[in-house]
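Now for our target.
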Amino acid sequence: MMRAVAMMSIFTVATPASAWEDTPLTWAPDGAITGFPERFQAASMTVRFADPGKGIDGVELSIAGKRIVFPRCLLKRLPAESRRDVQVKGAWHDIPDLEPSLTLEFYSPARRADGGSVSATYLYFGLENGTLRHGTEFHRFGASELLISGACSREVSQATTPME
């Protein structure tokens, strides 16, 4: 009986968090990001890819009334080499303590070649304030928090400006 109560407690506590599911968004060729509720509209992203095999030259994200130009220290952590290596998702449920977010997923080209994800970096931005909340790096054998140095964190903050 105690075991059943414990299992029910775990299920009850885990259910709201497990209900939080990212929704794939549309990232149009003109950079517009659509597919989330109207209050979060007017988001866009421009990605400049370098020569094949050289990664990303630049990313500019507009969200929550802010423009974020990714500094080099962040760009070098993104393994994508073409538009098809990038996915955009969002989550905006009414669950206390879970801020609505935009997730940018940058995959290694190897993901396309073998059907599995060899490497990826996810960046999570707050939909309401446009700030970079955190990042995750995925590798063949697991995932870890994307460690952003204090200097890089300052560069990201300095590269975030109000939209005009």
Notes: The chain has a mean pLDDT of 82. The radius of gyration is 18 Å. The chain has four helices and twelve strands.
